[in-house]
Amino acid sequence: MAVYTDVSFEDLEGFLSGYDIGAPLSFKGIAEGVENSNFTLQTDRGAFILTLYEKRMKAEDLPFFLGLMEHLQAHGIACPQPVRDKSGAQWSMFKGRAAAILTFLNGISLRRPGAAHCLAAGAALSGLHEAGQSFALARPNALSLDGWRELAKATAARADKVQDGLGALIGDSLAELEAKWPSGLPTGVIHADLFPDNVLFMGDRLSGLIDFYFACNDMLAYDLAVLLNSWCFESDGAYNITKAKAMIAGYRGGRALGDAEIAAMPLLMRGAALRFLLTRLYDWLNPDPGALVRAKDPREYSRKLRFHQQVKHAGEYGF
Amino acid sequence: MAVYTDVSFEDLEGFLSGYDIGAPLSFKGIAEGVENSNFTLQTDRGAFILTLYEKRMKAEDLPFFLGLMEHLQAHGIACPQPVRDKSGAQWSMFKGRAAAILTFLNGISLRRPGAAHCLAAGAALSGLHEAGQSFALARPNALSLDGWRELAKATAARADKVQDGLGALIGDSLAELEAKWPSGLPTGVIHADLFPDNVLFMGDRLSGLIDFYFACNDMLAYDLAVLLNSWCFESDGAYNITKAKAMIAGYRGGRALGDAEIAAMPLLMRGAALRFLLTRLYDWLNPDPGALVRAKDPREYSRKLRFHQQVKHAGEYGF
């Protein structure tokens, strides 16, 4: 969660004068989003989210993120829509930060999704992948092999303080992935962070996808690996193959998986687990005193990574 | 802000089954309230706030706070209303904490209120004082002389580390107030924390009062002193007598001030400033590592207290 930048109503009024979205009825900082400051804004014309992009977010990436949301919605994927200001811009500067107003999407994220929700999430992901094929912009994945190498270096000295053997786990895993990371698989726009937090449901119906701020171009099957990693493990560490099969079936309903993609899944699952292990470990070791969220426990992902190291072929994941 | 207790949608669903308020459409932790965990909840029947009472809040005080909000609304003071559950209860236990659902009040708090807003806030305060006269429950003010003495003791050793001379300022001020604190002035239910944060406006119209969790019984004129302290100083430390006169006129429109109350204002203003100086100083010196809000700067109130020490009579405040 977070409100890193304080925005008074008087500040807001000035900013809203550039928009044509009605008079404000309520305005509250919300406890969501690790990276940015987020506020809910209700006006007499509807509900919106105001986001001030902080820290790691680069303004030059905003046309990709905001353009992608417009593109996806135009292709039938429900997601927040940037509201253009009176000049037609998707974002502008506000309190020294890039800022945008997005439409508010109704729906609630689930903490314990069931198999039916996993099927819906898998279907939404392949829908996103298909719709993304016609998106004109591209953005490299900063959190793939090169990024992992940097994070591994930055955390190596203190990894074992978090968990015995963690440094070796990371080093060995990174060495294996450097040697064997797949190439030649189908690529396109991926969400790259489609955790249950970022999928909204109303009742059992998926109502939309949110938080596109890690979206980039990479292997599509890697995005499915991120999804399986974040939805299909139980809190006791067990991989729930019933949920996974539903998720894979949901995905395949929208996009066929090639043999090479399936064969690569054990590696892609390890890569996806290593990616979240490394970013969580880095944030755990380098807590931001100004952060208003508790860092997430990296050990959830070291356990998943160890699980994946035992997996010999994709069938064990439910393919 | 704060979300100290994590509430999943699945937790929420269980809790909502005890209420008759419709199906949830959205649910978000909000960045408000230093003491409690707050969530906005939108259902197909309306907007609500779910509050989990944490830490310092005692469950035995809830009938006073929640009953007061019902009583005030019934007497024409707009404020959040506790939604009774199917058994008729105003609150119940949820995740090990006392929890209540309140109606959501539209409106926005101002950071830089003008004289017209001050007049409206003054009028709302005397309306509250009048309406409170018929409220059956009572609660002592834990943050009056006895509480100040404890806080002064707990902060004395380190006060000067925050600001040179702060320990002496507090000690001298407390000694004066212990000797001269008024008695015999009209008492009743006071809000005790009616900062601009806790008054909502829609445009220039006051739409309601919120956050009654410091409400208690004490001298009514002390509540006006809290209001003047928190609304009528500019950020450069100047006391804005135009705003103060508007606020006092607004108050007097709803309730007459007696001569003894006016004569006591210099002391009441010092007491109100000392109260917020001490709680802020305590929180500044004892940061809660789990707190998700930044502590407020106590020096804002040491400056106000020093200002009040130069004031000889109530006329200087605009009376």
Explain this structure:
Two copies of one chain form a homodimer. Chain A is of the alpha+beta class. Chain A contains eleven helices and nine strands. In chain A, the strands form three sheets. The first copy, chain A, has a five-stranded antiparallel β-sheet with strand order 1-2-3-5-4, covered by helices on one side. In chain A, a hairpin with a 2-residue loop joins strand 7 and strand 8. In chain A, helix 6 crosses helix 10 and helix 7 packs across helix 10. The first copy, chain A, is globular, with a radius of gyration of 20 Å. The two termini of chain A are 36 Å apart. The model of chain A has no long low-confidence stretch (mean pLDDT 93). At the A-B interface, helix 1 and strand 1 of A face helix 1 and strand 1 of B.
List the topology elements.
The structure is a homodimer of 319-residue chains.
Chain A: H1 9-16, E1 24-29, E2 37-43, E3 46-52, H2 62-74, E4 92-94, E5 97-103, H3 115-132, H4 145-155, H5 159-162, H6 166-180, E6 187-190, E7 199-202, E8 205-209, E9 216-219, H7 220-231, H8 241-252, H9 259-263, H10 265-285, H11 299-309
Helix pairs in contact in A: 3-7, 3-8, 4-6, 4-10, 6-10, 6-11, 7-10, 10-11
The coarse silhouette of chain A is: globular
Strand content of chain A: 5-15%
Give the strand order, joined by hyphens, for the main sheet of chain A.
1-2-3-5-4
User: If you average the pLDDT of chain A, what whole number results?
Assistant: 93
Helix share of residues of chain A?
Answer: 40-55%
Query: What is the subunit organization of this protein?
Result: homodimer
Supply the CATH architecture of the largest domain in chain A.
Alpha-Beta Complex
